[in-house]
Design a protein that fits this description.
By secondary structure, the chain is an alpha/beta fold. The chain is built from 13 helices and 13 strands. A 7-stranded mixed beta sheet has the order 3-2-1-9-4-8-7. A 4-stranded parallel beta sheet has the order 12-11-10-13, sandwiched between helices. Strands 5-6 form a two-stranded antiparallel ribbon. The N terminus is likely disordered. Bound molecules: guanosine-5'-diphosphate (GDP), 2-acetamido-2-deoxy-beta-D-glucopyranose and magnesium ion.
């Protein structure tokens, strides 16, 4: 029986690989790392995002951290793991119960893990024996007052000193920090590694205002590899698929018979009059686009608008001869997935349409555009926007997919 020794050797090899960064383990030496120590050696990277930011910017911030940690792993830092920050108290999710929501509610965690070593907060808790999760260092990131010195953007950071963190650790009362340090930061996310290396023995490091560091390579291969791994929870996909089959008569991921619109209202309608149209302006633009697509009569509308605005839009478009659809969730879906899940279902339905029209500078629309690039739609059918009623209407940037 030679299987067992082989297995043991393999385990040792794995352990040695995890251990490489820290120390070389000689069997004669004292304190030789045993398996328990190896497990404890994990370096956990936590982060959070400026509280008012919405779901879809947060998805982008995740990608910055995921790419950084995946790259660090490739360069031998095998013990780094990224902790997925629970979704808590999001500004737009009005009906949500105030409890931290794990990422598996919205995303396919195995797929995320295929790109980066991520771990849910509840898994971190389950590894801990104490009643409290104590972070070693929390870096509170802050912008420099002047980001452009002499008109040049320079990458830099500087420690301000000890300070306070009062944003509440994703709603958990049992998380504390040994040290909180304020840091002015400007630059790409890989520069955070310089901060991480200040305290090489820290095992739990957190960055707040994760939106401040920028992508290392925005729109390049690593970006898209990460983006492709951000698959939604299969149950949400299934709900969207069923809706598309039932109401939009399509059984494929690339439909040929409906147009979709992301009609962003609320704060956009209130404060971005130069970017978004009125209801009448929306009707006019949709009619104009649909006249160029004579085979399409079905229109799917995703929106955060009030019921009265939606009803008006629906009435006007129906009078013009179009068949208008919205996703109206059942109570069961509302209870199970909340506003966050419903928004994802809207995004999936938009991303599978023949033709998509989005809202200018909405990250909700950007994520739909990326999904369509991944599905392989022609870019002409994707990078379209609603224009304001009057004034200039800048064409959307085309962030097309990069596969190699
Ligand atoms: N269900 C649904 N929710 C939306 C829609 N548009 C916006 N929302 C909600 O409003 C939030 C908008 O914030 P965010 O994700 O930051 O996107 P942005 O503000 O448009 O860049 C979303 O996360 C949703 O919760 C929509 O078409 N459908
Ligand atoms: C912290 O509290 C949450 C519930 O609020 C619980 O799920 C988690 O296990 C606790 N963590 C620890 C380390 O006890
Ligand atoms: Mg937003």
């Amino acid at each position: 029986m030679f299987l067992l020794p082989l297995l043991v050797t393999n385990l040792l090899l794995v352990a040695a690989e995890i251990d490489t960064e820290v120390q070389y383990c000689d069997k004669d030496a004292q304190n030789c790392g045993n398996e328990v120590e190896v497990v404890d050696d994990t370096k956990l990277i936590f982060y959070d995002v400026n509280p008012p930011e919405g779901f879809n910017l947060r998805r982008d911030v995740y990608m910055r951290f995921a790419v950084m940690v995946a790259e660090a792993r490739k360069k031998g830092r095998k013990n780094w793991e990224l902790v997925l920050p629970p979704w808590y108290n999001l500004y737009h999710w009005k009906s949500e119960k105030r409890v931290p929501i794990p990422w598996n509610k919205f995303f396919d965690i195995d797929s995320l893990k295929s790109f980066a070593p991520v771990v849910e907060m509840y898994e971190v808790f389950s590894r801990i024996k104490n009643d409290v999760l104590e972070l070693d260092t929390v870096y509170v990131l802050q912008n420099f007052e002047d980001s452009f010195e002499d008109g040049n953007f320079v990458e830099e950071w500087g420690i301000v000193g000890n300070c306070e963190y009062d944003e509440g650790f994703w709603g958990y009362k049992n998380i504390t920090a040994k040290e909180v340090v304020c840091v002015k930061f400007q630059g790409k996310i890989s520069k955070l590694k310089e901060l991480i290396s200040l305290h090489p023995h820290d095992k739990k490091i957190m960055f707040t205002h994760g939106e401040i560091p920028l992508h290392d390579l925005y729109g390049l291969k690593s970006y898209w590899d990460c983006r492709k791994s951000m698959k939604f929870n299969k149950k949400l996909e299934k709900i969207a698929k069923k809706y598309i089959a039932e109401y939009l008569d399509c059984n494929s991921k690339k439909c040929k018979n409906y147009l979709s619109v992301h009609w962003r209202r609320q704060d956009f309608a209130r404060s971005r009059g130069n970017d978004v149209p009125s209801i009448a302006g929306t009707v006019k633009q949709l009619h104009k686009n649909l006249r160029r697509l004579p085979e399409i009569k079905k229109v799917f509308i995703a929106s955060d608008a009030s019921m009265s605005e939606i009803n008006k839009l629906e009435k006007d478009l129906t009078e013009l001869g179009y068949e208008i659809h919205f996703f109206l969730p059942s109570l069961a879906i509302i209870n199970e997935y909340g506003d966050g899940g419903i928004a994802i279902i809207d995004q999936i339905i938009c991303s599978r349409a023949t033709y998509f029209i989005g809202t200018h500078e909405s990250t909700f629309s950007y994520r739909i555009q990326e999904e369509r690039e991944i599905l392989g739609f022609k870019s002409d059918t994707t990078f379209n926007r609603l224009c304001p009623d009057s004034g200039i209407c800048i064409k959307p940037s085309r962030w097309t997919i990069v596969n190699k």
